[in-house]
Amino acid sequence: MEERKWWQDGIVYQIYPRSFCDSNGDGYGDIQGIISKLDKLQDLGIDAIWLSPVYKSPQVDNGYDIADYKAIDPMFGTMEDFDRLLAEAKARNIRIIMDLVINHTSDQHEWFQRSRRREKGYEDYYIWADKPNNWGGFFGGGAWDFDELRGQYYLHLFAKEQPDLNWRNPKIMEEVQDILRFWLDKGVAGFRCDVINIIWKNDLENGFPSPILAGLKHYHSTPGCHAVLRRLRREVLDEYDAYTVGETVFVNEDQGRDLCEPHRKELDEIFAFEHMETEQVGVKWFKRAFKPEKFFRTIAKWQHALTWNANYFENHDQPRSVSRFGDDGKYHNKSAKMLATMLLTLKGTPFIYEGQEIGMTNFDFTSIDQLQDVESHNIYAIAKKIGIPEAKRWSMIKTSSRDNARQGVQWSDAPHGGFTTGTPWLKSNGNYETINYASQEKEPDSVLNYYKALIAFRRENEVLRRGSFKEKLIKGSVFVYEREYKGKKLTVLLNFSEKPQKVPFKGHQMIGNYEKKEFYGVLGPWEGAIIEVE
Hints:
Elements: H1 6-9, E1 12-15, H2 31-36, H3 38-44, E2 48-51, E3 55-56, E4 68-72, H4 79-91, E5 95-100, H5 110-116, E6 128-129, E7 144-147, E8 152-155, H6 170-186, E9 190-193, H7 223-240, E10 243-247, H8 253-260, E11 269-271, E12 280-281, E13 283-287, H9 292-305, E14 310-311, H10 321-324, H11 332-343, E15 349-353, H12 374-385, H13 390-400, H14 437-442, H15 447-459, H16 462-466, E16 468-475, E17 478-485, E18 488-495, E19 501-502, E20 507-512, E21 518-519, E22 522-523, E23 528-533
Parallel strand pairs: 1-2, 1-15, 2-5, 5-9, 9-10, 10-11, 14-15
Antiparallel strand pairs: 3-4, 6-8, 7-8, 12-13, 16-17, 17-18, 18-23, 19-22, 20-21, 20-23
């Protein structure tokens, strides 16, 4: 039998550093702030931290525009701070996973500055052209910008300050392998790989005319991308037994399997997006009403599609799950716990995003001026240009902006939720006085303490950590599935509504968000329960 990896039994916690905890009052979270909260994360029961970028960066896209892959941005601290974080985390049996951004760099990176000057050896580190094609960017608008110094256009699938690397140049492989070894030698456990399935461009032909992402077929999940991933694994990652999880854009089941099935020897896991797009109409800015049944069927499809799933309902790019899939008003406590029940009982590795464990909600902003997110401002400007009314523009941004997940973690009822003693880089949510870590630690019935109990239950239960997945009932707001391992079975029952729901299941309740010993076939509002069926 194949040896189990730590990440198959473990739980990963994502930290978005600028929003986690500010130790020095400058309004930005930092590494010392993370260190100060490690005991709380250990108490929560996590096994690893995925750290969003802390590299040196102009911060145009909050650190996903990297100017130096081997330096810590002064905003977050020093390399000595990072080394201490590694040591302090290791002392608590917590691993550190770095964010790896290798589709693009910052335009301030030394490589780009040398490339735009056509310095010898750097001429084709990036993708240059005399004439741009019709490709569109992920942040809206075109994907090319003219560089006056070089006298050519460069490709940027994201912000214009994020030029795409040219993976056809073998020197890029050498540079990235060197970066991987630098961090692995320090002791990091692996990498979350940003937009990893679009790094290789087949050609620069025009794409099919489209208002969004014309050109996608020329760089989406290409054979060249697979070759890069296999080589990185073979030549570096396997040497360190390093873990990789990939953020993968627009993948279907077959493409997902090609990226992460064990025999392929590319990635260990992937973040698929389909379940997070079930209420979209084309792109995330246009929404239809959330239909739980469609959400459930998508979840179930991917549970069967992959040998092992990376399960998540939130991250730094997604709205808060309790506001999106639950009820952040009357049933805040119950629905946040119900979502936790689902997240921690699906087959695969659960990923918890900072603040999710206390049920943090979407922002309470009232205008675009309060947002910092470059993507939100770009989309708002485009929507205005094409004549979308102001109220509709704001509605689009309010429900979908990445800043929903980027407000400071609410540690207490102190000003700004205890995130900072200064002025936060992004305005705090006004509900920090009622939703915060300190109060939930003291409240036995809190969302936080339910997460702790559920994580402890999962840790001691092989059925949840290793078992197979089988859906038993998908109907309306009800999702019931079974986990089985070595003949032992657990049934998970979920109600995504405020109306009680009858289900044809009864049994002994192991854990749930309603206090009871036996489950008698009726799910209460937003109930989540794990039972042994009679």
